[in-house]
Amino acid sequence: MVTTTLTPPQKQVHAEPLVTLRGITWQTYKTLLAEIGEDRICRIAYDNGVLEIRMPLEEHEEPKGLIEHFVAAIVDELEIEMRQLGALRLEREDLTRAVEPDTCFYIQNESLVRGKKINLPDVPPPDLVVESDYTSSSINKFSLYAALGVPELWRYRKNTLEVYQLIEEKYERVTKSPAFPFFPITEIPELIEQSQTIGQRGVVRLFKARIKEILARENDKLAP
Question: Domain for residue 154, yes or no?
Fold first, then answer.
């Protein structure tokens, strides 16, 4: 039996429209996706019969977009490659789980997936996924991403950026990003807030300058 739960409006200003469907088989989930089509703005998550559909809002998208720019700035300064795949649908029929993160990146495993279509588990999952939370989810995203084997998860919410590392199949909150251990993650929320005053490109330029400063200091430490 299929039941539908409409999440009641949140008291916060930033509440995303959210629909939860229960009792959905994998086949029904795939049929619904085919009917909706790929040209859509809603995002989905599916976990063992529970399908969640949400519509991201401006307050949700802006921090996510800035984080994408920040990650790109880091890899450019490090002169390493990255494959950014946005809200790529990550799904495993064998686990009856699927999710579309707000954005995701291949960094350590970029060379393994370069130019390839992402089909899990034939290729590794993204090295880093980002979730910008403004609505309570009926699905445990930590359990979902852990099952898919995503090694690092960033969650931006309430003007804070939390970093989680997958350790023994569970996420543990850490103070440093495994992908970018040299960068002080706590500075990112402040930069996102500053964008409301000086603009998005302004904070991206500040971020790039900060990265250069940090890397120069690290190089000085290594100098003989």
Answer: yes
pTM beyond 0.85: the answer is yes
| Residue 32: inside a domain | no
**87 CA to centre of own chain:** 8
Which is more confident, 223 or 18?
18
More confident residue, 1 or 34: 34
Percentages helix, strand, coil for the chain (3-state, rounded to 5) are 35, 25, 40
Closest CA to 97 of 145, 42, 151: 145
Q: HSE-up of 192 (CA within 13 Å, CB side)?
A: 24
pLDDT at 15: 57
What CATH number does the domain containing 74 carry? Answer: 3.90.1570
Q: Let me know if residue 216 belongs to a domain.
A: yes
What is the model's pLDDT at position 136?
65
Please say whether the beta carbons of 173 and 36 come within 8 A.
no
Q: For position 158, what pLDDT does the model report?
A: 83
User: Distance of alpha carbon 68 from its chain centroid, rounded?
Assistant: 9
Domain that holds residue 76: 57-222
